[in-house]
Amino acid sequence: MNRRASLLDLAKTLGLAASTVSRALADHHDVSAATKARVRALAAELHYQPNPLAAGLRRGRSNTLGVVVPHLTGYFFAQVIEGIASEARQAGFSVMVCQSDENAAHEAQAIELLINAQVAGILVSRSDATQDFAHFEAARQQGIPLVFFDRVVEGLKGPNISSVTLNDYLGARQVVEHLLAQGCRRVAHLTGPLTVNIHRHRHQGYLDALAAAGLTPDPRLTVLCELSQQGGGQAMRRLLHLSPKRRPDAVFASNDLAAVGGLQVARRQGVRVPQDLALAGFSNEVFTTLTEPPLTSVDQRGEQMGRTAVQLLQRMLPAAGQHARTPRGIVLKPHLLIRESSLRG
Amino acid sequence: MNRRASLLDLAKTLGLAASTVSRALADHHDVSAATKARVRALAAELHYQPNPLAAGLRRGRSNTLGVVVPHLTGYFFAQVIEGIASEARQAGFSVMVCQSDENAAHEAQAIELLINAQVAGILVSRSDATQDFAHFEAARQQGIPLVFFDRVVEGLKGPNISSVTLNDYLGARQVVEHLLAQGCRRVAHLTGPLTVNIHRHRHQGYLDALAAAGLTPDPRLTVLCELSQQGGGQAMRRLLHLSPKRRPDAVFASNDLAAVGGLQVARRQGVRVPQDLALAGFSNEVFTTLTEPPLTSVDQRGEQMGRTAVQLLQRMLPAAGQHARTPRGIVLKPHLLIRESSLRG
DNA sequence: GTGAAAGCGCTAACAA
DNA sequence: TTGTTAGCGCTTTCAC
Hints:
The structure is a homodimer of 345-residue chains. The first copy, chain A, is α/β, with parallel strands linked by helices.
C-alpha cells in the first residue's frame, strides 16, 4: 500500500519545481505547452490526485459547495439536490447537504457550519419560518457567494448573491386558466404564508387568472393553511361547509400534499373529483400519478434548477475571471401537467 | 471583518504554546485542569472554530463522512440521510452525499471521489447492479472504514466493515402472516433480483410464512420483476391472467412502488382491493397513505438506520480507543403498518 | 504538564 | 517561462 503521489513527487521525477507543476496542472497560461504535456502525462501515469485539503488550506477555502434545504423527504428537493450534485461533480466540487427542518435556528446553524467548513459557496432554499437573515449576511461578508433557489430572500440583493426560481406566477396562472377552461367558475386556492415569494406569486397568478376571465375573486375561497396533508384536509373541510352557492367547483392547492389531503376529504364526503370538484396541486411530486384520480400539477423542474444554481454560483467565484461576481436572477418556466383530477372531459 | 481566531492566536494571548492549546482543546489527559479551563474560556470568548482543513491535512484525513446511495428521490433513502446527517453533525462530522443511480460504474466513481476527498469513513447502500466490489476493497485498504446499510455486500467482511440492516425476513414474514390471517390462501410475491440480500430475505420470509401455515408455495405466484410502478403493473397483469383457480387472492410486493403499480392495474380491471385481492408493499413510502385504498406496508426505520450507521462507523475510527475497529452487524426490527389495502374486516 | 520543532501538500508572491 | 521561498493552521513526536 504505497502512499498516493504528491505534487512534489511529480516535480522531483520531472526535474521541475513544485510551483511549475502546480501551474501546469492548473493550465496556467504562462507554462510552456511542452512542460504542460510532460506534467500531465506523468500525472496520468501515476494517477495523481491533488489533495483537496491542502489546496483548501492554502487558498483559505475548500472545494465543497454547501446546500441548505428545508428537508430532503420530498421529491422536489431531492431532485434539486440530484441536479446540484451532478453539476457540481462535473465542475470538480463536492457537495455538503444540510437541512433546516423549516426552522430558522437550524438554518442559521447550518450556514454557520458551512462557513466554518470554508465552503466555496452556498446554495440555499430558505425555510418558510426564517425572518432574520443575518446568517446570510454573515456568509456574504466572508466572501462566500450565495445562490438562492426556489425560495429566495427578497430583501437580499448584491454582488455576491444570485437566485434561480420558478415562474410560480405563470405556473399558477396556467393552472387556474386550465380550471376555468374546464368550465369551473368558483375556484378556491389553498396557500401558504404570503411572506414567502413562491406562495405570494402563486396567489397572484391565481387572482390574475380569475380577473382576466372577468371573475371577481371571493376572499372566502382563499384559504391560508399549512400545506400538509392534514392542513389541506382541514381547508377542504372548511370549503365544503360553505353554503351550496358559495362552495367552490375547483380547488387549486399551492402544493401537492395539501391537494391530496383535500382530495381524500372530498372523496370521503362523497364529492366526485373531478365532476363535482376539479382539483390541482403544485410541484409534480411522485405520488401525483399514484392517487385516485391522478393529480394535475405543475412541474418545478427541480433538476434543472439545481444545475442552474451551481452554474450561477460558478460565475460568482473569484477564479471565474473578469466577469466574476456578477449576480443574476434566473427564472425557469413551469410545465403544467394535466391529469384526471381536473379533467371534466 | 476580522480574521477568524486561530489556535496560535489563543496560544499567544494565553502565553502558552500552540501544542498545549491543541491538547487542551482535545481534552488530552496530561494537560492540567486549570490550563484546560483557561483555554476553553478564551476559545469560547473568541468564538474559536478549529480549521477542519488544516486538521485534516495534518492527520491525513478529513472530518467528512461519505455517503453513497442508489438515489435520493424516494422516501427511504432520504430518511436515512436525514438520520445520518443529524447524527454526524452531533459527532462533529460533515456529510458528503453521492448517488450511484443503481449503476456500478457510478458507484465506483463515487467511492473513488470519497477516497480522494480523504473522508473519515464511508456509509453505503450498494447499487443493485454492482457485481464487482473492488472499489469497496480499495477503500478498506486505504484504512477507510465502511458501513453498509440496508443493502450489504455479503461477501465482504472484515475488520473495517460493519453493517446495519433491517430484518427483512421478519418484515416479510409478518406481512404474509397478516395476509393469511385475513383469510387469504393464494398469496403472490413480487420480488427483485434474489442476488440482493433484501430481496432474498424478503422472499424467504414469504416462503416460510406460507410453510408455517401448512401451505405449499406455488412458484407461478413468485414474480421476478422490476420493482417500479410499471414493473409492478406488468407483474399484476400477468397474475390476473392466470386461470381463476390459480389466481392469487393476495399480493405482497417487495416495495411500495410496485405495489401501487399493481394496485392501479387491479382496480382498472375491476378487481376490488382488498375484497377480491389483498395488497401489501414494503418500505412505508409517504404515498402509502395517499393511495386509494391506503397501502399496508413495512416501515424500514430509515432514520434509525442512518443514526446507527454513523454510530457503527465511529466505533471503527482510530480515535475510538481500545475497542476500535470492531466490526459489527446490527439488525433492526421492522414495523408492520396495516392499512386498508389488506384489511378484509 | 508544557514547549519547541517539524511538516502535512499545496499555492502565490516574488525573483531570476 | 521557471524556480525559490514562505506559509496556510493544525497535530504530533520528542525533549524538558
